[in-house]
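Researcher: We plan to redesign the surface later, but first we want a full-length starting point. Tokens attached.
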């Protein structure tokens, strides 16, 4: 993928990428509303998180000159009985605004179709305008808001639920 003279690539994540993935995520935890998590991911938690990936999940990274500059994850939504997948997209702050998040999310949409899912959802902090815009540009629709869903940075946050139907309803 290219934007201007800068290029980046997207590929499946490997275990060697985990340290960079966690670094990008923990920056978002400590500095932004991109995640409702308020505690950085520890080494043991990261290892367990990595091991939790199954056949109907996907973890991809964006790289620039070999280093991980963004990542995205597709995983079954944690609601028993649902056949829905949820996405996460994070980009290193130094590389934001280059189209990396959009490319990662577009790839996850393609992967979700290939895995046979009908619906993708994302739970996005309502204050995360960039996350909401990214999803909207790729066809996600707002389906609801959960008020006062999480407490971070000394205040309560709302969560917006967005959804993308991957095929027409029958």
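Model: Full-length starting sequence:
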């Amino acid at each position: 993928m290219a934007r201007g003279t800068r290029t980046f690539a997207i590929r499946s994540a490997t275990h060697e990428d985990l340290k960079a993935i966690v670094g990008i995520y923990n920056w978002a935890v400590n500095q932004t509303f991109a995640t409702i998590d308020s505690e950085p991911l520890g080494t043991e938690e990261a290892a367990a998180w990595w091991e939790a990936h199954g056949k109907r999940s996907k973890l991809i990274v964006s790289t620039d000159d070999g280093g991980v500059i963004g990542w995205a994850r597709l995983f079954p939504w944690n609601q028993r009985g649902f056949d829905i997948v949820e996405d996460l997209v994070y980009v290193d702050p130094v590389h934001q605004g280059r189209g990396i998040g959009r490319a990662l999310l577009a790839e996850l949409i393609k992967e979700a179709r290939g895995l046979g899912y009908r619906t993708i959802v994302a739970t996005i902090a309502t204050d995360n305008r960039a996350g909401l815009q990214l999803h909207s540009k790729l066809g996600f629709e707002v389906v609801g808001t959960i008020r006062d869903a999480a407490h971070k940075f000394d205040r309560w946050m709302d969560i917006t639920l967005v959804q993308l139907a991957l095929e027409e309803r029958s």
